[in-house]
């Protein structure tokens, strides 16, 4: 069906509205929200987050991570959304050609198992930017990779560069175990080419569901709740581990902390020459940012360690049925038959609670929230 004209006009109207609803996938399947940071304050909450200073980052990356407003701050994305903003800059700084930002919640916000998700607006990564949303375990105690690492989202890989699909090509990954005599360790990554752009100046939701048996990762599950995970790995633990093993179950059942960062160059994009970093250019004033609208943790058993209970959900940003930001909120059970499409123009058979869709009735269309 040809819906491009009304889809584009409605999307343009939607894009001009005020702040995004910070809802995520919400409670369900035994999970309840236990903590969240909506990044709506005047500055980053340092009781929750550490800002890293790294002069010589791993992976042959080119940036210097600094604690400065020009690389790490909380602010508006230009559309009314309060965000954590990580910014990469091309600039000379202490023998490095780039600066950027990285934050973590180590020793401040940590938890074992749950559903964690973040709404992220990605920069154009072509070529050389490497944004990531991830978790790590007890790094200070046992080092890496024994601590266990869960990469929920990474963009900018060399394969995407080669195939010119950087805006859609990304991966999830896990690293664990220990190095053997051949300097090898176990890891598993899975890359996907998404069916629509995720670098479209809009927020996309990345969700990780981590329980006793599995780690599974999803993209835009708030819009497509039935979509299959783009990454899954089994982590069921044995009853005991008398000797160290490479079994995933030995490494992924302990408190983890959250990380966000925006790297420049390195092994992942396979660019180690500053001159070949084309994502920072004259058109964007040699700077690019990653915006995190919110991060949420849901659990079945509340075992999170945090300095506070997290941000309260604003009353006008929840599950009420009143119109908000120019979007009509309706109860699906009371509507007459209609055609529904997601914001990419794909027909949706059964609207889900919380979804924002395009409703079409004859020649008339509108954006609605269920």
Structure description:
It is a single chain. The chain is built from 3 helices and 22 strands. The chain is mainly β and 370 residues long.
Topology:
Layout: H1 4-15, E1 32-37, E2 50-51, E3 63-65, E4 72-76, E5 82-93, E6 96-100, E7 102-104, E8 110-111, E9 114-121, E10 129-136, H2 139-142, E11 149-155, H3 158-163, E12 169-175, E13 187-193, E14 204-210, E15 214-219, E16 231-234, E17 256-264, E18 287-299, E19 328-329, E20 339-341, E21 356-361, E22 364-369
Parallel strand pairs: 3-6, 19-22
Antiparallel strand pairs: 1-18, 2-7, 4-5, 5-6, 5-18, 7-17, 8-17, 9-14, 9-18, 10-11, 10-17, 11-12, 12-13, 14-15, 15-16, 20-21, 21-22
In sequence order, what are the helices and strands, one letter per element?
HEEEEEEEEEEHEHEEEEEEEEEEE
Q: Over the alpha carbons, how many angstroms does the gyration radius reach? A: 21 Å
Kindly identify the CATH topology of the largest domain.
Answer: Jelly Rolls
Return the structural class: mainly beta
Strand percent estimate? 35-45%
Count of the separate structural domains: 2
Shape: globular
Residue stretches low in confidence (pLDDT < 50, at least 5 long) are 1-6, 11-18, 319-335
Major sheet description: 10 strands, mixed
Strand tally: 22
Helix run count: 3
CATH class of the largest domain: Mainly Beta
